[in-house]
Amino acid sequence: MKQALTSMTALRPIPLSVLDLSFVSSGSSGPQALRNTIELARLTDRLGYTRFWVAEHHNLPSVASGAPDIMIGQIAAATERMRVGAGGVMLPNHAPLMVAERFKVLEGLFPGRIDLGLGRAPGTDQLASIALRRRQDADPGEDFLDRLKELMAFDTGDWPADHPFRKIQVMPVDVKLPPIWMLGSSGYGGRLAAQIGVGFAFAHHFATHDAMDAMLAYRDGFQPSDRLAKPHAILALAVICAESDEEAERLASSADLAHLKRARGDYGPIPSPEEAAAYPYTEADRVYIRRNRDKLIVGSPARVAEALERMVEETQADELMITSHIHDFAAKQRSYELLAEMQGAAVSA
User: Which domains, from first to last, does the chain contain?
Assistant: First the structure.
């Protein structure tokens, strides 16, 4: 492993975490993407990252895992220190009882190391959503709130006196649910998280809503609860870091082309920088890519540190969660090493 840089713009002390989607790269495979996720978790655990989250997506050839609970168990078993969780479980896709059971089992196996992030979106296209949910007549907002209340009641036992589910015991009975986090890419998730007193994670890397508005509204409206005494806001960002701006831009060309293709309904594996260099871009394509760069931080450690500092200052984030769309796994690992080095974290050989 390369040694830490001797001169670098430092990032203020703030917890760094990881969001990894098990992206499939062109020329590789789904099983390899899953193994890479576990290997990245081992590395970032050694580097001092705070938590490692995996997401729920379905029917996307670019994403190898649609089962975050399974991946969480594998990652937690392969690491020693950092928290591991879902970013997140798309609650309308699942029976709350099943979510409660699976995450209580995980918490029982890895006490104090599991996070339960919850989202409202299906994490997929309309057809796969029908296959997952079947019931499509319910109002999405109300359905989510009903499921959330049910999930929390399975944990606390706070059911109405005449509710039939009062008789259900969620195993293991002597384990509480792990901390709940509300995910969001709009203002709604932050307001709900503040209202019920849980942590909030904002997905800047694909949101159209202003991150500062969502994060500050969450903090201003936070109501302490038994689950969380004070607000904790995570800002999720897409970052590609390399030793030089030029190398980072080369690596980012893969992400640029992948985003462009997704906008056209092509969710294939992440292309290589060589594929990106050979692609016949139109002027409209280049305009789209430049606009999309608002959601992607690219550069050398100095450039990235400056951008991250600005985001922390604007949003008052308590924690940064980094996701990286990099084709080459070694380059992806190095990106996370460089971010850790900004914090002065020791890099293990």
Answer: 16-240+301-342 (3.20.20.30)
